[in-house]
């Protein structure tokens, strides 16, 4: 197992444990675990220094913040069909109500809904097969 894989798996397990203690709905917890995986992976691969994960839950939203020492902000990329990477922040955007960068580029955050409001990719238009994202 590569070091990045080990750290991401640890972050995902820790997140799962905390969200279970908070009794987060399973659909929101599943989305949160994926978002944590993507943000922590990006911080390890593209950032620098220690990577810190913070979770905050207020009964309406789960806020995920991942911070490293790099001042280069996270940016969405367009991945070609043949690319192995470059889709992580697109997934984060689809699973979150909102996401962004703060702290001079050092922190990337995402907000996951925990009530009935679905994130953009989970909302449907008139046809149940048409996603808005």
Automatic annotation (TrEMBL):
One of its GO terms (molecular function) is ATP binding. Residues 6-97 form the Histidine kinase/HSP90-like ATPase domain. SUPFAM superfamilies: ATPase domain of HSP90 chaperone/DNA topoisomerase II/histidine kinase (SSF55874). The keyword Cytoplasm does not apply. It comes from the Bacteria. Keywords: ATP-binding, Kinase, Nucleotide-binding, Serine/threonine-protein kinase, Transferase. This is ATP-binding protein. It comes from Streptomyces glycanivorans.
